[in-house]
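Changelog entry

Holo records now carry the ligand SMILES as an explicit input line rather than a separate metadata file. Below, a converted record for nicotinamide-adenine-dinucleotide, shown in the new format.
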Amino acid sequence: MHWSRRDFAKLGVMGVAAHLAPRLNAQTPQRKMGVPTDGSSSVGSKTGVPTDGSSSVGSKTGYAVIGLGRIASHFMPGVRLTTNSVITGLVSGHRDKADRTAAEYGVPQSSIYNYDNFDEIANNKTIDAVYVALPNSMHAEYSIRAAKAGKHVLCEKPMATNVAECQAMIAACKAANVKLMIAYRCHYEPTNRRAIQLIRSGAIGQVQAIESAFGFDIAPGEWRLSKKLAGGGPLFDVGIYSLNACRYLTGEEPNRIAAFSSVIDRDGRFNEVEENVGWAMKFPSGIVASCNTTYGGSMEGYFRVHGSKGWIDVNPAFIYEGLHLRADCDGKPIDEPNTARDPSQFQAEAEHFSHCVQNGLEPQSPGEEGLRDLSYITMIYRSAGIAT
Ligand SMILES: NC(=O)c1ccc[n+]([C@@H]2O[C@H](COP(=O)([O-])OP(=O)(O)OC[C@H]3O[C@@H](n4cnc5c(N)ncnc54)[C@H](O)[C@@H]3O)[C@@H](O)[C@H]2O)c1
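Structure line, unchanged by the conversion:
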């Protein structure tokens, strides 16, 4: 199917997802994807949060947020903008922070949990799903405990710290008959989707090569610098955006990977995880990609796709707002700044997962998608000589 720009413009975020979702990754088996086919994104009533913690929240999906850190502070306002999702529970080791957040989101005291009594969420009917926003090494444990409590799981990226954990998460969610989605927000983001649409429509001809990078200068003391908590360095954290983008832009899975890593700054930050990783991938069609990630300097997240008849440059591509797509499609220039503001990407992500939960559909970015990235991360590390 070929999409004109007008066709594309007629669709909202979810509408675009509806038509492109099965093609986001050409090798993903065709599933019953969780996207509305009529372009609508609104599901459910405007029922508010119950105050007694004892009844359901109408047709909205109620989320317990696990870990009230930085990403949770984007996700929760995003949920507030949806019509089908609501924050109904909080899990935190800091009661004062949880109390403040509960007041802001109308969460009753009875729906505030800590890491010790977390499993009691099983008895809370207002909590349908959890949003796992913890350090990477805690994703598997809390996703599995949530599944055992009968709750659907929306888990932040990277899915976990190794392939075995990913497999255990998938198995636990299957056994409990709950949905599992990895929070790859770029899958639901219009500028990234527009790049995919241009490529699939043949607008730049045969893709030949991709370049992508994402990194930042990390502050000392971050849990991200602990191998135990993070699993690895910038590749786990932000390099994963470039890895995942190369896969959704090509619609292929890499079959050759070669990588290098280095530590340049001997200032104590990189005693456990790498500072830089550069890797190359070859895809079955012959497309080649080269990617870089760092914790040693500011590296704007972007991708550039070179085709036989043009190019697409999305820069920035991975941050929360201000995305910008420029392209040359067989001599036709395209310049599309995205004016959407944060937390629109989190709104789209939550809307999608809630829609899947409410309609028994498979999310666009299920556990298997996170598992694939973890398997490629493992290969990249092995190629770079980093022990995993
Ligand atoms: N999708 C995105 O755009 C995006 C962006 C940033 C982070 N993330 C992911 O979200 C997750 C959380 O990242 P963040 O930036 O919000 O981190 P953060 O440090 O800001 O928040 C982590 C939360 O976990 C809690 N926590 C519980 N046990 C902890 C422990 N042992 N050590 C440290 N913190 C502990 C902290 O109190 C805090 O509330 C990570 O997996 C990260 O990769 C995703």
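Spot-checked after migration. Residues 67-71, 93, 133-136, 156-157, 183, 185, 223, 229, 237 surround nicotinamide-adenine-dinucleotide (CB under 6 Å). Residues 189-340+367-384 form a domain with the Dihydrodipicolinate Reductase; domain 2 fold (CATH 3.30.360.10).
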